[in-house]
């Protein structure tokens, strides 16, 4: 058998009981967290107050609210568009999600906007707290400080800024998944959060596959059953919309979500469409091959991480897989960067990484930072706003992305390229013993002062 086949067989084998050593942070971490998060939140509030027309006018949330309000009066939501200026935006989420927004639309739009904005920030902190727990850190003030530190850093990344500016729901779906995986495998409720997230937005269903390959069959069944319940509930509450969405194939119509080649689509399909200069139909065969290849690598790595007791790495790898292989992954879908930051911080902290390893990690973080700048379409007269590097390339109508050259491709395809780099780094971490000795020594030297994990 080849080495690859041996690795896959080992990764997918029945996991043995494995508990990572419980670690902890000192009290100083709380002071650091309060300072970082306080500064990040204060600066965010100041920027929003300075540019409310751009940062406090959440387009996507307006579509959600309109969809919920419209569904209370007509069963034709999926046949209609919400018009903002010259834009006609359809409601693209599931009937279950539509039912949730039907309930929220009974509140004023302003109230819903405040609930989503404040809830997103609070949920970001909860997500980082849960992620540190999955990494094996004790519940204490130090862990709260670490959670606040990462939440403050994540708040000023482009994905989170976009999430807040558009009024998106991705951080709520992330916390549902993380809550699920903090539960013990024997608990009956494990899987409910994944099922609800998948019922709201289909991509989180990738975590059901993760539960299957890690042989947590009961949790996978609970997740699948919960997802099925959201589908049935959608049919009972909104039969015509459910029929349009599920039986008429709207769930598989990626064109309703936008143009695949648009720079905001930071998935493998977006990367390939822009690089090969192909439309959705033309790029589909290449995307399918790439998605299969990445899945064949990422799923065994996630399963191996679980088998070794590194659940956070398994969950983060599965999230990364979903972002890469989904036909459309807008940059604001990448709010999972919060979990990636915790996973990286855990690895560096546990191995007492050298200063230049921390510096390298900081450089990767800064690539995703929301830098105060002018987006390309705003030049030369637009305001200075928090923008990611991906928005500094030419983009917009008339397939501008098809005419990129040189650094445009690196900058405009930043997230999928970083995602592939993270997968390669994870492979080095999990399969270090299988690599040639010189490469193994170099990787160990990069990550650790002593070449061995630090004892807690």
Can you give the mean pLDDT?
89
Number of domains: 1
Structural class: mainly alpha
Query: What is the beta-strand fraction?
Result: under 5%
Describe this structure in words.
With 456 residues, this protein is mainly α. It has one domain. A two-stranded antiparallel ribbon has the order 1-2. Strands 3-4 form a two-stranded antiparallel ribbon. A hairpin with a 2-residue loop joins strand 1 and strand 2. Helix 12 packs across helix 13. The longest helix has 28 residues. It starts with a helix and ends in a 9-residue tail after the last helix.
Summarize the SSE layout with pairings.
Layout: H1 3-11, H2 28-50, H3 52-55, H4 59-71, E1 82-84, E2 87-89, H5 95-104, H6 109-134, H7 141-155, H8 158-166, H9 170-182, H10 192-200, H11 206-213, H12 217-237, H13 239-247, H14 268-276, H15 280-307, H16 311-325, H17 337-350, H18 355-367, E3 371-373, E4 385-387, H19 407-412, H20 414-430, H21 437-447
Antiparallel strand pairs: 1-2, 3-4
Helix pairs in contact: 1-15, 2-7, 4-5, 5-12, 6-7, 6-9, 6-17, 7-17, 9-10, 10-12, 11-12, 12-13, 14-15, 15-16, 15-20, 16-20
Task: Summarize this entry quickly.
By secondary structure, the protein is mainly α.
Give me some keywords for this one.
3% strand; globular; disordered C terminus
């Amino acid at each position: 058998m080849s080495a690859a086949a041996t690795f896959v067989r080992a990764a997918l084998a029945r996991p043995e009981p494995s508990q990572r050593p419980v670690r902890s942070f000192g009290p100083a971490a709380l002071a650091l967290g309060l300072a970082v998060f306080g500064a990040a939140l204060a600066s965010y509030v100041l920027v929003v107050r300075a540019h409310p027309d751009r940062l406090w006018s959440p387009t996507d949330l307006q579509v959600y609210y309109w969809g919920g309000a419209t569904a209370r009066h007509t069963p034709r939501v999926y046949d209609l568009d919400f018009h903002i200026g010259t834009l006609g935006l359809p409601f693209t989420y599931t009937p279950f999600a539509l039912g949730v927004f039907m309930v929220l639309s009974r509140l004023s739009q302003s109230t819903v906007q405040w609930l989503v904005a404040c809830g997103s920030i609070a949920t970001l902190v909860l997500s980082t707290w849960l992620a540190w727990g999955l990494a094996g850190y004790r519940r204490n003030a130090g862990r709260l400080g670490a959670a606040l530190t990462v939440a403050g850093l994540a708040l000023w990344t482009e994905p989170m800024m976009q999430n807040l500016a558009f009024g998106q729901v991705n951080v709520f779906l992330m916390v549902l998944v993380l809550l699920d995986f903090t539960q013990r495998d024997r608990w009956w409720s494990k899987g409910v959060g994944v099922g609800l997230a998948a019922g709201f937005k289909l991509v989180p269903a990738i975590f059901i596959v993760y539960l299957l390959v890690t042989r947590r069959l009961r949790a996978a069944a609970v997740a699948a059953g919960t997802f099925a319940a959201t589908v049935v509930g959608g049919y009972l509450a909104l039969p015509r919309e459910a029929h349009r969405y599920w039986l008429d194939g709207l769930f598989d119509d990626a064109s309703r979500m936008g143009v695949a080649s648009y720079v905001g689509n930071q998935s493998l399909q977006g990367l390939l469409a822009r690089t090969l200069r192909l439309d959705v139909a033309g790029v589909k065969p290449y995307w399918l091959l790439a998605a299969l290849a990445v899945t064949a690598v990422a799923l065994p790595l996630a399963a191996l991480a679980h088998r070794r007791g590194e659940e956070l790495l398994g969950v983060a790898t599965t999230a990364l897989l979903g972002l890469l292989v989904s036909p459309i992954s807008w940059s604001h879908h990448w709010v999972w960067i919060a979990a990636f930051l915790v996973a990286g911080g855990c690895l560096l902290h546990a191995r007492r990484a050298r200063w230049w390893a921390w510096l390298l990690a900081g450089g990767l973080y800064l690539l995703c930072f929301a830098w105060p700048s002018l987006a390309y379409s705003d030049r030369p007269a637009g305001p200075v706003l928090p923008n990611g590097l991906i928005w500094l390339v030419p983009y917009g109508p008339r397939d501008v992305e098809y005419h990129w050259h040189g650094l445009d491709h690196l900058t405009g395809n930043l997230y999928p390229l970083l995602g592939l780099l993270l997968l390669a780094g994870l492979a080095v971490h999990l399969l270090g013993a299988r690599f040639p000795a010189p490469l193994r020594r170099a990787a160990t030297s990069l990550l650790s002062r002593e070449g061995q994990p630090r004892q807690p």
